[in-house]
Amino acid sequence: KYVAVVNRKAISSSMVVFCSVSLESQKLEEIQQFSEAVAGIPEVMECYLMGGVNDFLLKVSVSDLDAYHQFSSGKLAALPNVRQIQSSFVLNEVKHSTVFPVV
């Protein structure tokens, strides 16, 4: 597989939002259903199953605040078993790397 690393700011004026999602139920079946549903949403760039307070952390890219509202209320909150969504908006990207450190 080949991957191109591009400067996001050079190709669009999108904004990045990190969403912490809590589910009503943490049963394996519900976690798998949420994972599969989120994998099919184009705005979701990354998705992580988390331990701790929230169940999932999503990195989302949208064009603007209105697009994020449509995404969060129309797509994410509409998924079954979603209890709570907490959003953090990126103001400035301080560091972004695709290099995985080998230790």
Structural description of this entry:
With 103 residues, the protein is of the alpha+beta class. It contains three helices and four strands, in the order αβαββαβ. The protein has helices at 8-11, 28-39, 65-76, and strands at 15-23, 44-49, 56-62, 82-89. Strands 2-3-1-4 form a four-stranded antiparallel sheet. The longest helix has 12 residues, at 28-39. It is globular. It starts with 7 loop residues before the first helix and ends in a 14-residue tail after the last strand. The mean pLDDT is 92.
Distance between the termini: 24 Å
Fraction of residues in H or I helices: 25-40%
Shape estimate: globular
Give the C-alpha Rg: 15 Å
Number of separate strands: 4
Strand content: 25-35%
SSE class: alpha+beta
* Weakly predicted, low-confidence segments: none
Largest sheet, in brief, is: 4 strands, antiparallel
Reading the helices and strands in chain order gives: HEHEEHE
Overall pLDDT level: 92
| Number of helical elements | 3
What order do the strands of the largest sheet run in, or round the barrel if closed? Answer: 2-3-1-4
